[in-house]
Amino acid sequence: MSLPITAFYASLLGLCYLYLSLAVIAIRRKARIGIGDGGNHDLMRITRVHANFNEYVPITLIMLACLESISHWDTVMHIGAMALLFGRVLHAYGLRHHDGASWQRFAGMIMTFLSMLLLAATNLFQLHFLVV
Hints:
Layout: H1 4-31, H2 41-70, H3 74-97, H4 103-131
Helix pairs in contact: 1-2, 1-3, 2-3, 2-4, 3-4
């Protein structure tokens, strides 16, 4: 089975995750903090950015792969995956560069949630026709 849409977006999201990981490492090295955050505000913020990305991306990519394996709704898959990609980038930018709420964080979360909702609903819709 081939999952080229999932592979494409997982690769782009993987590069984003790598960037966030390197950002965490850079701040850790600069602040000389090996474990935890040492009360360092910048390290607390960037580890939260990194963790937040890690909390939403895997389940959404799993839903994308599931949908790609049972349907040929390429447009829906691209819309969901692009919303996830741009939502995570916007959210990471907003969380990294602003204290408190920002339009980037808000828009990023909305896009992430819409991506999850679209992919979950489309999977359930498709499964209904596979089972019936």
